[in-house]
Amino acid sequence: MFATSNGHKVQEAQMILAPFGIELGTYPHKGVEIQDEDVIRVVEYAAESLSSPNGIGVFIEDSGLYVNGLNGFPAAYSSYVLKSIGLQSILNLLAESDDRTAHFDSAVALKSEDEIKVFTGRLYGTISLTPKGKHGFGFDPIFIPEGETRTLGEISMEEKCKMSHRALALRRMAAWLGVKATHE
Ligand code: IMP
Question: Is 120:106 a contact under the CB 8 Å cutoff?
Answer without folding.
Answer: yes
